[in-house]
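Bit of a strange request maybe. I'm writing a small parser for structure token strings and I need a real example to test against, not something I typed by hand. Could someone generate the tokens for this chain?
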Amino acid sequence: MLKLLGRGATLCDDLSRREVLRAGGMSLFGLAMPGLLSRNTVPAAESTDVPQLGDATQLFVDLRRVEKLDNVKHVFHAAQKHSANPVLRKQKAWEPLYGTWGTVLFDADEKIFKAWYGGYGRPTGIDKPGWQKDRHVLCYATSQDGVVWDRPELGLHAVAGSTKNNVVVGDEHHEGMAHWETVLKDSAESDPQRRYKAISWSSYDWDGPRSGIYTMTSPDGLRWTHTPEPIFRFHPRPGTKDYGPVGDAQSLMIDPLRRRYVAYLRTLPHRAMSESSDFVHWTPPKTCLPAQPGESSNMVYQHMGFVYGDQYLGLLTYFNRDPKDALCTVRLLSSRDGDQWERPTDEPFIGVSDIGEPDRFLNMVTGGPPTRVGDKLYIYYRTLAVRHGPFEGKDDPARQYPGGLSLATLRVDGFASLGASYDGGIVTTKPFRFTRKSLRVNVKSDFGKLTVEALDEQRTPIAGFTQTDCVPVRVDSIDQAVSWKEQPDLRLLAGRVIRLRFHLENARIYSYRIV
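Reply from user aminoacidic:
Good idea to test on real output. This should exercise your parser:
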């Protein structure tokens, strides 16, 4: 059964339904090197107020709602790559052999996956720095399973003299100099003519004021209306209120938590953001993901964000500009407000592969959030076997080595975990209130056990909810209920300020929530 998140929902609402949610294998890339957190480690405070938690999933990525860890390892997990990668690759004459950009999302109304991705049109006839030799088009494909793709003949735009193709933006638009890196369906939009929204970079006026970031809207994802002027300009006009300078490598997020649209932008060497309540008027860009000391040019290359539970996660294309090891990899990002982003780990979330693989040197983010399929998250990314310029060697992209859109999978909530061996470990949360009743955990304890106790404001175990009262959890499950001998759930504690203390023995926990 498939389900798409609307603007008022969050990615992991209603986990027990085991449905596909819109958010974004062959080999497990492995885990980040686990760091043993010492006793009394306390992450930075989120707030002095006691929050009231709804039923949103609480992850262990930034640890801001964890008070104390004892003998516990914090591990970040890499996504697994699909054996069919790239799952969306060149089949038609107008599709590029040398990779592509794009977005993959799941449409709950039509119960299919949809992809928008780059293709080629007519030659530009221009041979100078900064200009493409071939014009771009935007292609469209659909899939029942997210792996095998169909290309419908839409008849909307001519390519090579024929309209028998799957092109939804032709090469006549901006002289084919645009690339649309994010296309999203806005389920909360009241105007059906603006149901789909997209953001693009165009360089058709490379040296002038009309190069920059544009938006477009559509009723069906096929027929598009474009803004006549850039929202953010590559060359702001002197004496005007133009926003810029802003380059390419953009993305778009629909934020249901704060009811807004967010554009993530390139302002070298940093990443910036701008927000809008109507997809028309935008705020001045501000830095949201700064380059760190020693990071120059476009090392913090591209990023995108999405809502997960009551927080935000994101993916970063990180360009290591070391001539001896010039790799593009995908890393995990975290944010509590969608404005300021943190890098919880430097380990690749989707790293490159070894000799002979389609992602030998380069993996990059796409524009769509993860999609839930059963117990997994589907995450789409861009794949190439060659290095990014200016570090090409014999793998020069001009040789047209193949690439495309690839698929990686991850356990639901499986971005990070807290675990302990048989000597035991303890995770204590910060205090919170709640109004729900059932404590659910995403845990792997089938060869060990997890027990949970509830603490009062003085950190004293509450009678009936102590560790010895808890029925041990010995399962591998993304959604396991926790109970106590005399209490099936936490309903008696609803409204009180409590902490939870998780006891782990040869077990790891990925998340918890109260529903």
